[in-house]
DNA sequence: ATTAGCACTCAACGACAATGAGTGCTAACG
DNA sequence: CGTTAGCACTCATTGTCGTTGAGTGCTAAT
């Protein structure tokens, strides 16, 4: 579709624009050296490239900037993933050498480090706790009518919630209840807890415990309901975008930051990403607020089971080579790191 | 110190400036009606007020704006806390009518609502968990060498942490350990846990459990260490500031948002607030990033014991009357709401 | 096919005048 | 004597108008 020379020129323009954030003209390309043609020749090619939709001109007497289509071609065919900064990677690994203990911490840290290394904003989606299974359930009564319900998953994730106890329930009944629940539901996937509660626990409960219906009701409220167990979203470097020249306008900043505050939206955005690395450029993103941003996501997995997603949000003019390389490595590292929890 | 007329004029200027964000001139004051003098007279007074340090002039041919000292006088002597928007308050209360179950949720919600009502940024400091005492301790083994340690306080707050188990410890020893710890430390204030661990639990443990030293060591890591149990900070309306005209400069925005990301700094800032309502105007704040902001904090307490602090961060030109009134009511409501947990 | 040459376009910048909101001062007024 | 009308003055803001220079597109020469 494109001649070699056109590819070279497109590549040069995108590279230059990524560095400078300013429209690049024929002369500066010519001077770079790697395209050995005169400005005039390059101009002709640029004109063609514009006609083909790979370039745009902010106004007649300015240089060219890549269009969405141009970036897309660059990402798909031109970007070379040079040995992504070795120093930074070892840096990343050393951070995690001291074994972190909480899965949440690991994810948050990874997000922070990625944001620091790239100077863009990072968004990480923790492992879906719905894939986990119940390890242990516990009720800690605080006083006569309230208790804390605690759920521990096989991965060490803990959720807790306050529940009000059925009136007049006895301590021993409470203990029996917890015992039965653990006996029957340990090992059950989190998603199926509520349904299994009725099929498995119900009758057993009715045999040993008074008012078993209200107890059952209480238990249902105590267990994390499928929907509300939203995947947690971790953000890193939210303010990094403010250093990018494309965000010198406060209104733009506000719409972006407001989007970043909407956890459910982010969650949906990332969880819809396919496995492996995906690049969504400009208007390829659904949300208008980031129509001049790009989002690169990497989903990591163990044995084909997806564990989580980590993404970088930057201006369309972002350093694709660096970010893709980094995400590739980091996502693989994450999978390794997390494998501890998933044996 | 000031004549009645000067007070009236100062009040009018601050009010006007708070509304308009623009230097206010003698003519506009005169037209307001509540100061029945000609522009010329007002000009003379304004000149005096400037000499006294209550007003400032951006440049010779502009109106006046209040100085820090001017705001201070306004806050201390002039502001009238008119029945702070009844609708908004009932609004606030109805939000909490449906009893929230988690103390964290309550605080976060309060922060969000305050931010919405004021259109400024709110910062809330949760109740210090250090005042709480141990209700229940639990170890849930995940596999042969790791377990989740769970600590429940008397207020229903749950902390959890992963610990690696001493090698080759038996299940029954683990159970004994947990049992002993609960027997000995239930009711002990969180701050004293670690110290009591050695004095109270140590020898008991040595009597019943093998390798009791490594077990003790593990327990110490499992309990929340005093320092790391930082008070949690809840933010609301971080992006609200971006709608304020004083933040049309992205650099300013960045320094502010960066400050808001530093949880420990915020925590220190709020926790140093005295009981009751405090107003810190402009440079009265230590941090340079908010030298043109004001922070109003309210600390709420039950029976003289401070439970937490809630604050509003806005431009110096913020609506003091509204915010102070609101904070006063909200902080009292918070105390009531939380009293449930602290009986 | 490539490139030198040239006319043309247009954002960015600076100079300059016009505008007008606001002041300070002086003199008049009740 | 306190108040106010009048007036000259200041200065940020706005708009106009060349100038500059980076960059293009086209044509003709190589």
N- and C-termini, Cα separation of chain A: 48 Å
The first-level CATH class name of the largest domain in chain A: Alpha Beta
Find the CATH topology of the largest domain in chain A.
Beta-Lactamase
Q: Characterize the quaternary organization of these chains.
A: homodimer
Helix/strand order of chain A: HHHEEHHHEEEEHHHEHHEEEH
At CATH level 2, the architecture of the largest domain in chain A is 2-Layer Sandwich
Helix content of chain A: 40-55%
The major beta sheet of chain A can be summarized as:
5 strands, antiparallel
**Widest β-sheet, arrangement of strands of chain A:** 7-3-10-9-8
Identify the CATH homologous superfamily of the largest domain in chain A. GAF domain
Q: Which regions of chain A have little confidence, pLDDT < 50, spanning 5+ residues?
A: none
Number of domains of chain A: 3
Mean pLDDT of chain A: 90
* Chain pair with largest interface: A-B, 34 and 34 residues
Radius of gyration of chain A: 27 Å
InterPro entries (chains A, B): GAF-like_dom_sf, HrcA, HrcA_C, WH-like_DNA-bd_sf, WH_DNA-bd_sf, WHTH_HrcA_DNA-bd, WHTH_transcript_rep_HrcA_IDD
Protein name (chains A, B): Heat-inducible transcription repressor HrcA
Family (chains A, B): Belongs to the HrcA family.
GO molecular function (chains A, B): DNA binding
């Amino acid at each position: 579709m494109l001649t070699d020379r056109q590819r070279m020129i497109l590549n040069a323009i995108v590279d230059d624009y990524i560095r400078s954030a300013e429209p690049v003209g024929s002369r500066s390309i010519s001077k770079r050296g790697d395209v050995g043609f005169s400005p005039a020749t390059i101009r002709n090619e640029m004109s063609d490239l514009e006609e083909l939709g790979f370039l745009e001109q902010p106004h007649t007497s300015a240089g060219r900037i890549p269009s969405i289509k141009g970036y897309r071609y660059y990402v798909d065919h031109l970007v070379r993933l040079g040995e992504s900064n070795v120093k930074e990677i070892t840096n990343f690994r050393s951070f995690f050498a001291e074994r972190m203990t909480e899965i949440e911490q690991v994810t948050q840290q990874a997000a922070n480090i990625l944001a620091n290394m790239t100077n863009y904003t990072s968004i990480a989606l923790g492992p879906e706790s719905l894939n986990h299974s119940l390890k242990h359930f516990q009720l800690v009564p605080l006083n006569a009518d309230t208790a804390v319900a605690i759920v521990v998953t096989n991965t060490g994730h803990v959720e807790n919630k306050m529940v009000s106890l059925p009136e007049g329930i006895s301590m021993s009944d409470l203990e029996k209840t917890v015992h039965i629940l653990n006996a029957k539901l340990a090992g059950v996937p989190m998603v199926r807890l509520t349904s299994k509660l009725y099929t498995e626990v119900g009758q057993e409960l009715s045999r040993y415990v008074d008012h078993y219906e209200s107890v059952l009701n209480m238990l249902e409220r105590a267990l994390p309901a499928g929907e509300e167990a939203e995947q947690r979203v971790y953000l890193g470097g939210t303010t990094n975008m403010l250093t990018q020249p494309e965000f010198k306008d406060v209104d733009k900043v506000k719409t972006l930051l407001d989007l970043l505050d909407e956890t459910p939206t982010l969650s949906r955005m990332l969880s819809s990403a396919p496995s492996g690395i995906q690049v969504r450029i400009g208007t390829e993103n659904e949300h208008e607020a980031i129509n001049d941003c790009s989002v690169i996501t990497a989903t990591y997995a163990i044995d084909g089971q997806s564990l989580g997603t980590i993404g970088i949000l930057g201006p369309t003019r972002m350093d694709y080579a660096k970010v893709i390389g980094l995400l590739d490595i980091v996502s693989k590292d994450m999978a390794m790191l997390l494998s501890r929890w998933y044996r």
